[in-house]
Amino acid sequence: MTISLAIDTATSRTIVGIVNNGKVEFEQFHEGATDHGKAISELVAKALKATAIPDQVVIGMGPGPFTGLRVGITFAQSFALARSIPWVGVCSLDAIRIDSTTNNLKADEYTVATDARRKQMYWASYKAGVRIKGPDVDKPEEIDEFITNVFPDVRKLVELSSMQNVREPIYLHSPDAIPTAERT
Amino acid sequence: MQPLVLGIETSCDETAIGIVRGRTLLANEIASSVDEHARFGGVVPEIAARAHLEAMLPSIERAVKTANISLRDIDAVAVTAGPGLIGALLVGVASASGLAQGLGRPLYGVNHLASHISVDCLTHSDPLEPVIALLVSGGHSSLLQVDDITSSITKLGATMDDAAGEAFDKIARIMGVGFPGGPAIDLLAKTGSATAIDFPRGLTTSNDWQSRPFDFSFSGLKTAVARYLESTPDYAKGDVAASFQEAVVDVLLLKALAACKQTGINSLVIAGGVAANSRLRHLAEQRCEKVGIQLRIPAPALCTDNGAMVAALGSLLVSAGRAPAAHAFDADSSLPVTSINLR
Fold first, then answer.
1. Which of A44, A74, A181 sits opposite B53 (nearest CB)?
2. Could you tell me the CA-to-CA distances from B246 to A65, A134, A141, B185, B236 in Å, in that order?
3. Which residues pair with B188 in a beta bridge?
């Protein structure tokens, strides 16, 4: 029996859920690319009022725009520390659930992509539910046909927690900065 | 029982956790990313924010161990809500919010500048207020009138351009003596003469004393030093450092003491990273003693950014019965000093 608090801020959505032994007891998101900080605290407060006490925290570790991504990770890690419960990190792109009928897929093979800002997308490709390429970041025209406007799913985040344990944020980009010595 | 408060500070490049019980310091853990910024000649916000996330949990755990408490014993969590680098602040605020919610304890979002001043309560038990505060760091140079550190701070003046610490960084970079510039210039200045070069004192003409008596400007000084270095290829590094430092320190104290005189407040607190400067501390002691002003400067380790100061202000807010923040609040990169405690 595991009661998981799932948190993902790798997209413009702040996603919070409670999954009690496979059953989604709470699931809400807030849309807003710069709202993660406020939204996460409000949504988690709501989740805790609505359901049982979580005994692990599952965190979407990205890839995602850095600032919002960090807000979710650091909130979730600190919550876990305060409760003395473990946290498990998973790849946010892997947690996107694609329905083959609604997306008109010919085969069980697809690529998902999310907004990385600066005219780029984070993407990964899957075959039979398994990631075969990525995660990576590129311009949209450099990525083969992809499904976008899709978001991590609370139940899938928790499902992945038994298979993955990502301990570092997935940034994929280095910080933009030029050392003094290399400036012209 | 005195409140047990954990404070988190991430407004710039230090991930700092402090724990206090009332006015007693129990832990002050600092993880700095300063070495990662050195080769860029200044703080890179994204590098700082990444380092905060990496250092946060280990720093909290270290502080709890040093203080010899359990996280569950904490009565309140306080965090710097601003001003500062927004990406850096957000990591601290999110962590504090997660901790407070996990523990079921109140969260205080506090002002970074007010925290710098409030750290005085960890060294002095007598009341601080009313006091004139000279707040000088890499990001700020302000003169403030503090009537109540938990509720009433009035801004008398601030820098029009660079912060004092920023001027130290920039001059150190031009002279190639390292980053951060404050400690490097301070050390170098000991080998030179403070009166060797007559660098300008910003905003000290009679007109300035009329129109903006408590404001500062360091950009003219910076340009003057840069021109001097260009026109004097064989300059004496020690003399430049000492004379530049004297120009900064002189004008800071001139204006701080003028503020004391005008307001009739005979107590001055100097806080912020630049308050660790040895020449500022020495000259402040001399000048304050001469005119009968009581001087309070925190120990150097409590002058630079730290978590103890955030915990200290949190503790004062709890003791004064001030209300904590609502569950959710945003960090504010330009939070005015008059906003001490976010609601």
1. A74
2. 45, 57, 58, 11, 15
3. none
pLDDT digit string, tens, across residues B89-118: 999 999 999 999 999 999 999 999 999 999
- Cα–Cα dist B137/B155, whole Å: 16
CA-based nearest residue in chain B for residue A85: B102
For A39-51, the pLDDT digits (tens) are 999 999 999 998 8
A173 touches chain B (CB under 8 A): no
The DSSP 8-state label assigned to residue A53 in this structure reads: P
Strands A3-8 and B341-342, sheet pairing: unpaired
Class in CATH terms, A3-182: alpha beta
Q: What ipTM did this prediction achieve?
A: 0.95
Interface-testing mutation among A74, A118, A170, A172, with chain B (most B C-beta atoms within 10 A): A74
Residue B57 and residue A82: Cβ atoms within 8 Å? no
Q: Quick one: which H or E segment has residue B54?
A: helix B45-67
With beta carbons under 8 A apart, name residues in chain B contacting A171: 50
Q: Which residues are CB-contacts of B154 (< 8 A; sequence separation ≥ 6)?
A: B144, B145, B146, B147, B338
Q: Chain B residue with minimal CA distance to A180?
A: B40
Record the pTM. Answer: 0.94
Q: Give chain B's domains with CATH numbers.
A: 4-119+303-342 (3.30.420.40), 128-297 (3.30.420.40)
User: How high is the pLDDT of residue B343?
Assistant: 82
Are B271 and B117 in contact, with CB atoms under 8 Å apart?
yes
Please name the residues in contact with A130: beta carbons below 8 A apart, sequence gap of 6 or more. Answer: none
Residue A54 is given by DSSP the state P
State the amino acid at position B250 in one-letter form. Answer: D
Task: Say how far residue B252 (Cα) sits from the centre of its chain.
Answer: 14
Q: Which two tokens stand for residue A77?
A: 């890690």
Return the residue of B nearest to A54 by Cα.
B102
Rounded CA-CA distance B270/A136 in Å is 49
Q: What is the sign, positive or negative, of the torsion defined by CA atoms of A84, A88, A93, A97? A: negative
Model confidence band, residue A184 (pLDDT cutoffs 50, 70, 90): low
DSSP strand pairing (B141-148 vs B152-158) = antiparallel
* Burial bucket for residue B205 (CB in 10 Å: 0-12, 13-18, 19+): exposed
Q: Report CA B200 to chain centroid distance, whole Å.
A: 25
> How far is B64 from B71, CA to CA, in rounded Å?
7
